[in-house]
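## retry 2 of 3
previous attempt timed out at serialization; input unchanged, resubmitting
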Amino acid sequence: MPTNLKPLTSLRFFAAMWVVAFHFWTNLASAMPSVVGKGYLGVELFFVLSGFILSHVYLERFKEGCFNYREFIWARLARIYPVHIAIVAGLALLIAALAAAGIQAGDKLLVWSSLPAQLTLTQAWGLAPDGGWNHPSWSISAEWFAYLTFPGFAYLMTRLWQRPILAVAGAAAFLVALYIGFDFLAGFSLTRATIFWGALRIMPCFALGCSLWLLWRSGVARSQNQALVLSCGSLGFLIVSTWLNLPDYISVLACGGLILGLAASARNGSSLLSAPVLVYLGEISFAVYMICIPWQLVFSQGMEKIADIDSQKMPLAIWIAMVVGVVSLAMLLHHLVERPARDLMRRFEFKWGRIDVRSRLRIEF
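## retry succeeded, writing output
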């Protein structure tokens, strides 16, 4: 099996830009297309991808008894924490600079009571009810919860090692039941949950991703044509489901089909979504996602004060510049913070005499 699933790395960029479009569209004076209006599902796509890739990297080791939980947690922390803490620090400096200039950042951004949860990545566990700071980081907190509980998912998957269809069916049933049940009890969709129920929101998606890896490992879609049909069919179904405003769990299942099809295409030697530029954009996708809201705030407020442009009615050219800007900033964040800090933490781990299994597999997720 291929160790580097390039199409899935590229897919991460499209997931991030789906979220960006969802947030940035409010700065245009035009109706939001239904597909863009479902852009919050880009987070679900990330969650399913996370379960799939972590299973790809670690599940066989877990089954063989070679899984080291401490190494795993350290590797995951090195992946997400440096960017998160850098943005929190950057926001603190920005707020201080604005205050020095006589501009108040507002109580929705500066929430000191939420800072401990932000620093411990527990803000999506119901421990930061007042929100604040960098809102997209709630999903990183949810990811952290999934990482901490990964051995539970791994145990279930190893019990279903020879029954991948049953595993996928069970995960899909769990997802549908939880979405319907949560909506009934809470009065709103689970895909709208962030700081209060974010840790719960990732669970069915993560489980689906883990089970889909078992199905992929079993050899589903054995030819390039089959993989292409699965990929294109799932993408088409995803677009139709958002256009028709079908229940979110249907779109999430379509996301799972897309991931499975792209992974199968990589196994069959296809070059689909494997161009170096797309893979690179996928590598900076985490930075894109994490910086998008702070950048939107700075850019829109800057346009209002410097150019007297209504932040809710930006000209298209200015709006495109904002979108391009978030990618450019993400590149800087990736190369100046994310990658150096991750490498530094890995070297620190090597000083402890441990082995980072991902450094051999070279899967950047």
